[in-house]
What we know:
five-stranded mixed β-sheet; 4 helices; Aminopeptidase; alpha+beta; single chain
Amino acid sequence: MEDFVIVPFEEKYIAMVVEFEKELRRQEPDTYYWEPDEDYVKALTGSFSDGRFGGAVSFIALKNGTVIGRIDAVIIAGRSDPSCGSAYLDWICVLKNERHNGVARALLDALRAELRLRGVSLLVALMAQNDEAQRFYRSVEGAAIHDEGIWIDL
């Protein structure tokens, strides 16, 4: 039986999410290269009233009142697909000490269900290169690995 719950990431959880971000860095200091500082908190808080985030879909995993995982996606609004039938998986992360307990899968299931409710039929993601992430993505039901992604600096 799961000892965590998945809930939509709402503004009231910001302080808890910041603590999650800090804990990520404590557990994996060589993985995350920026700190969740005052500017981050301000920007994150502002995102809840900023119209640019209208297509954002985010969930968190809570265990005993603590955030242990987070998933973020955005519905792609482009004129090439005016039905907005695609979304981009921006981030999925679970605290290292909470991995392999179904948290990432539960986060992804919640995201997929919400995206389907919003008329999205395809979730696109860049695949992290670490072994844990590779195993996870390869195990996702209905997933197929396609072309490599590119990042273009602007």
